[in-house]
Structure formats: C-alpha cells, structure tokens
Amino acid sequence: RIGTAALAVQVVGSNWPKPHYTLLVTGLCRFQILQLLKEKPYPVAEVQQLDRLEQFTNGHKSEEELGELSEQFYKYAVQLVEMLDMSVPAVAKLRRLLDNLPREALPDILTSIIRTSNQEKLQILDAVRLEERFKMTIPLLVRQIEGLKLLQKTRKSKQDDDKRVVAIRPSRRISHGSITEDEEEEEDHDDVVMLEKKIRTSSMSEQALKVCLKEIKRLKKMPQSMPEYALTRNYLELMVELPWNKSTKDRLEIRAARIVLDNDHYAMEKLKKRVLEYLAVRQLKNNLKGPILCFVGPPGVGKTSVGRSIAKTLGREFHRIALGGVCDQSDIRGHRRTYVGSMPGRIINGLKTVGVNNPVFLLDEVDKLAKSLQGDPAAALLEVLDPEQNHSFTDHYLNVAFDLSQVLFIATANTTATIPPALLDRMEVIQVPGYTQEEKIEIAHRHLIPKQLELHGLTPQQIQIPQVTTLGIITRYTREAGVRALDRKLGAICRAVAVKVAEGQHKEAKPDRAELGEGEDCKEHITEDAKPESISDTADLALPPEMPILIDFHALKDILGPPMYDMEVSERLNQPGVAIGLAWTPLGGEIMFVEASRMDGEGQLTLTGQLGDVMKESAHLAISWLRSNAKRYRLTNASGSFDLLDNTDIHLHFPAGAVTKDGPSAGVTIVTCLASLFSGRLVCSDVAMTGEITLRGLVLPVGGIKDKVLAAHRAGLKRVILPQRNEKDLEEIAAPVRQELSFVLASCLDEVLNAAFDGGFAVKASLEHLNSKL
Ligand code: ADP
C-alpha cells in the first residue's frame, strides 16, 4: 500500500501504428494509502506522506549507525559506477550525482538504475525507514558488481555492452502484470528476425533487397521508442508484402471474352468490339505494350463495369483507383519517407491490396484530376502509363523501382476536354455514348431488375415490372444518358415491394395455421412467429397482397411520387420568344430552353444564365444577323421600326442558371428565339435545334450530335434541326430513334427558320403577305 508520488513532466508517444507512450516523471516522495475513496474511472485515495518526515523526526537517532551504513553504501556505489565506461556522458553524470546528492536519496536512485526484479524494487519502495533501505540495497549493489565483474571477464571486448546493462538501460516502460520488459523485448527481437528472414526469402529485386537489408540493420540498432522504428518497420513490412514476382496466369480466350462481355452488358456494340480487338491483339502477341484504353462517356453508361468485365475475362485481379479531385502528386507517387505520416501512393497501395503484379487497374475519372501547389498529379500519371517508363516506376515512399509493365491500365472519363493533352496522348479514347430508351428498357429487364431483386431478396414470383412501367420510369422519373438513376428508382420500387411482401408473409402465416393449411400456394410462408393467440386481431385477417405484385402507373406514383418530368416542353413554348436548343454536357446531351423578352430601353442586350464568352458572342452574332435581315423578314420592334434595337432592350435568358454554359452550338437557337420574339410567332413546340452560326447566316457543324439527338428523343420532341455538315453523324444513331424523329439538315439560317415555325418563315411568304395587304 505504499507508492511513489510523482510529477508527470512529459508525455511522448503516438497511437500509430499501435498505441505506444513514454511517460517522463519526477519522483517526489513515498506515500501510504490511508483510505481508498473511489476506484473508477481512476483510483482516488486519501494518502499520507511517508518520506522526508522520518528524516526530521528520528533522523538523528541512529546517526552513527546510519553514517556507517551510508558510507558503506556510497563506497559500493562508487565502485559500481567506476566499473562503467566513464566516457559515456550519462555515466559521468551519474558519478557526479553520487557526490552531489544527499546520501539518503541514493538507495532509491541506484535501485532504479541497476538490474533488479520488480519484486525487489517494490521491497525497496516498501522500506520506509532509511536504515532498512540502506541495508536492503547494499546486497543488490554487491550482486550487480559481482555480475559485472563476471561479465567483464567473459566479454572483455564488448565493453560498451556492459555499460548498457547498467547505466543506459532506459526505464521507459512501466510493466504491469506478467509481461516483463525482457519478455517483450525478446518478442520484438524475434519479430525483427522473422522480418529479416522474410526479406531474404522474398523475391524482391536486387536493388530492393539491398535497401531492405540496410534498413533492417538500422532497425536492429534502433531503440523501439524512437518514432523512426515504427516507420522503418512499416516500410520493411510493405516491401515484403509487395507482389514483386507474384502474378496470376492470364486465361485469354476471345470467344469466352465475347460471351462474358455480351452477358454482362447489353448494347454498347462499338465499345465491346474495340475491347475484343484489344484483347485479340493481346492473345496473338503476348506483349503488353498496347495503348491504354480510355472510356469516355456520361455517368452510368457502364464504363466501370466494362473494366470489371475485362478483368474477369482475363482472369486478373481488378482494382479501381478513383482519381476525382486528386490534386497532389504524392497521391500517385507517394510521400518521401522523411515526412511524418508518409505513405506510398495509390498505385503501390493498390498492388499491395491485390497482391499480384498483373492486375487490371481502372483509373476512374482521369478528367477530374486537379492541379495544386503540391504538384501536378497528371504528370505523375504519365510515368505510370508510359510503357517505355513504367517498368521502373519509382514511388517516393519505396524509393526503389517497381515494375508496372505487367499491369493493365484502363482509364475512364466524362469528357476529354479536361484531360491534360500529354496524358490524353498516351491513351486511346473510346467514346461511350448514352443509351436510347429502348436500350435502357432492355438493360433494365436483362440486368438491373434481376440485380435489384437479388439485392432485396425478392423473386420474380413476387414482383412484376412490365416494360411499359419501365418506359414510364425512364421518361417520367429520370432524364439521364446512363442508367444509374433508373437503377436507383428500381431499387426504390424493390424496397417498397419488399415491405409489402414481408407484411404479407406475416399475415398469411396466421390464417394458414388456424385452418391447418388449405393447400394454397402460400403454404411456404408459414413462419415460426405466427402465434394462435394473435388471430383475434382483426387487422390480421385482411387479405394478403396477391402475388406477384404488379407495378403499374398507380403503384409507380405511390412509390416514387408524382412524375418529375412531365409536359414541360409544350407548356413552355406557348408564347413567342422561346426556343429549344440542344446542348452537350459531360453528363450526356440535354435539351436547353432559350428565352427572350424585350422592353423599352436604349438598345442594350442583357444575357443571363452563367454564359461563357463563346455563348455571349453567339448572342451578339444572332442579333446582328437579325438586325441586318429585319426588313427581309418583316421583323419589327415594339414601335414598328425595322431597327430592332431602337428604343428597345433585349433580355436573353438560359434557364438552369446555376450551370455554366458555353460553346457555339446555341447560335441557331438564339436566332430562332429572337425571330419568334420580333415576329410574335410561336416556335413549333416539338422542334429542337443545334448549330453554330456565322455573321452571314451560314450554319456550321457542331459536336456531340449523337448525345444531343438522344436528349431530344428522351424529351419527346419530334423534329431536330441540325447543320447540313453533321449529316454523317446521323449514321451512328440507332435506327429506332432515327425513325421516330424527323431531321432537318440546314446549311443556312433561312432553312432553320423555315423548319422551326409552322408554315415556314420564308422571305417570300412574308412578301406575298405584304403584297396582299397593299
Ligand atoms: P460509369 O462507370 O459509366 O459511371 P457504371 O459502370 O458504374 O457506370 O454503371 C452503372 C450501373 O449500370 C452498373 O450497375 C452497370 O452494371 C449498369 N450498366 C450500365 N450499362 C450497362 C449495360 N449496357 N448493360 C448492363 N448493365 C449496365
């Protein structure tokens, strides 16, 4: 019940990789516990100070005896210290301490330094009387001196080891219970030996082996409390774990690959064809230095899942590295080991995770790499992707080369516009366009619905989703190029049905029990929890829902709420000054409204809707062209003048104002919208258009036609006005979509306006009209 009161001077340590703390304390005095007040969360007790008191009260009593004792003790202590290497500063300091400190303090200090068991230390602590303490410590000192003498005899050469035995021995750990310091140290030592063995038997490169052996040598000499110990050890463990020479065997068979790809994915013929070509070349020429495939397309069109299928067909491990938002090159290439908390980059980490050196790595979202002060991650990726360089990729953390040439890299992106050109140059871009409604229905019924049913523990006997319902979800509840939102909506339906089915099971079970089973098909739903006493509950007698639950439009409305996209198009086109354009975004094609209004003013043009410079220029071009052609088309401002901007301000707005828009392809839409405004006529409500304009009224080709046409089709429009020179792009569009839309190919703005207004907008027509008026 005796302890030492101490003052905590310093606490050092960390929680990583495992909790390890060093506590530095200064002992003050002994105390005795009088009464334990509470034990949790930490003990609190009433104590009495024991030390020092004695010194004053009965210190003088046996002075003579004590003097002798302390003198004897002092002599032994000096003898012991002088046996050590005095050139070590700590030893020299100890020697000085022996002279400077009061003799009464020496037994405590020396006991803590010399090699004693915990038991012995506690005995000294318990010895409150000074005299007793001296008497008990002297034999320990003598034992230590004898031990040292013996040691010096046997190991004369290793003098500095002796000094470690006594003086430098750090009293760093407070050992509790059964594990003593020695045991722990031995254990750690064993670990290091094991690690060394692993390093020697691993198949790492010669260069890496050299580095590892050097590091392990350092590790052996290092005290464990040093932060660097854990770092070095982690490093070595990673080096051992890395798959230097371990690989899976490729099983490449083109026919099987075709089947896997077809089974996993519906449609996307172009992509599948290119992937098969790529794999075929692999099969014929066992050389991996092919181009890196980069799938570019809107979200949810199956880019990632094709990557996964490729790994499956090759029998390789698959690992996805998400690069979105990565702005630090150390993310790719690792941190140097000099930094605290340094770690390897994602490539090396991925290799460690998969455990083989020839996985398929999917670099997801390469277009979303960012630059920052910490360097350019795209530049770091160059080294990874370049077949000429990546056989000796050097991660900063490893600091030795690792051969990445066996890794198959596939990249995905939403757009090529933001991929750094140097990176793009090393990749072969394969466009993955959005799906048509028909394709989406097929994908839903072949892949998404079965997957969702399985996820929710449902069977086709319990739920039925007819194709019209799927079409309803696609047109009224989603507006996307891919199928991700569709997948989510199907998930929501399955969840709702799962509740019904689970409730139904509960209800069915009870009547069944009561009537001992009437032989109906719900027998299988009898469950253990059906207790006869709850039958009296009238609610339970309600009929269970009929299986399968059919999802029709009413059910859709119940589960998903009112339709999100409905009739928007025709409602918005019921006044002059509105037209529908087609825009391309990284998320696929979209329809875009353009609105215009005019008011009294000084001829100013206001543009809103977060437009880029190119778009603003298109608006100015459109106005200039209309002004110069106002007479021809009989366009007038509010007061009937052909000078359209005379006393008039124009405001053009592109709704969805939070999204930045740019690009030249809105030119024709702006012209049509303004023509409608100045002529007072309505634009046809089922026409969408795209195309760049020139000052002289020509229509120039634009990009992303396939996505744009699909967007128009999704929105239920019937006619699409495209630049003449984009005719060739129409071939890429699936036949069903082409049949449902009528295309107008325009080479000049006259043709655009004629197609956009019911009954045309031709010059001649308006002149005739004028003539007849006269
Ligand atoms: P991305 O990587 O292009 O954003 P994902 O690969 O994550 O898209 O695809 C989203 C989901 O859609 C996945 O569950 C995938 O299986 C499914 N999917 C997409 N396209 C198809 C397709 N053609 N056939 C079957 N499933 C598809």
From TrEMBL:
Family matches, as InterPro entries: AAA+_ATPase, ATPase_AAA_core, Lon_bac/euk-typ, Lon_lid, Lon_proteolytic, Lon_Prtase, Lon_prtase_N, Lon_prtase_N_sf
Cellular component GO terms held in the UniProt record: peroxisomal matrix
Location of the Lon N-terminal domain: 1-145
Major site of localization recorded for this protein: other
Active site per database record: 665, 708
Entries under CDD domains matching the protein: RecA-like_Lon
Residues annotated as domain Lon proteolytic: 573-759
Enzyme superclass (EC): hydrolase
Superkingdom as given in the UniProt entry: Eukaryota
Pfam families (UniProt xref): AAA, Lon_C, Lon_lid, LON_substr_bdg
Compartment list: Peroxisome matrix
The family this protein is said to belong to: Belongs to the peptidase S16 family.
Protein name: Lon protease homolog
